[in-house]
Amino acid sequence: MGTLIYATTVSLDGYVADKDGDFQWTGPSDEMFAVHLDRLREVSTEVLGRKTYGLMEYWENFPDTGDQSEDEQEFARRWQDISKIVVSSTMSSAELSSDRARLVPELSLDQLRRIVAEAQGLVEIFGPTTAADAIRAGIVDEFRFFVVPKLVGGGLRALPDGVELDLELAEERTFAGGTAYLRYRTRRV
């Protein structure tokens, strides 16, 4: 049985992208990238939406030009080995660039629970829109936030409105530049 996690980089005021859709400020330092690389070792399945899948295609089709770091090369290998479930009603299977990816037009909470139950390791739900229903339903086991010391004033929220969950801090770390990594577990009553 797997564990469902939601990981994201977020501004201090709670956004993954600003009001113009820009998220370049979320780019990780080398130190933070190493944490992402380590985190990916535990992930067996990614559940992501069309836009996030498109952003991550770089790693799926990693252009090995020889000038990338060893960490970047290893991240690409790990990403390519992960099973991916792409949730989109506007994509076709022909648009998937990996034989480890499958397309589902919509994802019910029951389907997500089955995916997690059948997984070995972590199942990461990637992207706030795709994760919103799972967060609202309280089925996310862990939240992993990279909190950037920046206020963007609006945009795409990392968490849906109206959710109340009791969380406990499981891990914390601060990086040069002030970004904080916070890992929380959901308290089950």
UniProtKB/TrEMBL annotation:
TM stretches of this protein: none
Pfam families from the UniProt entry: RibD_C (PF01872)
InterPro entries: DHFR-like_dom_sf, RibDG_C, Riboflavin_Biosynth_HTPR
Boundaries of every Bacterial bifunctional deaminase-reductase C-terminal domain copy: 3-178
Domain of life: Bacteria
SUPFAM superfamilies linked to this entry: Dihydrofolate reductase-like
Annotated protein name in UniProt: Dihydrofolate reductase family protein
Organism: Arthrobacter gallicola
Organism lineage: Bacteria, Bacillati, Actinomycetota, Actinomycetes, Micrococcales
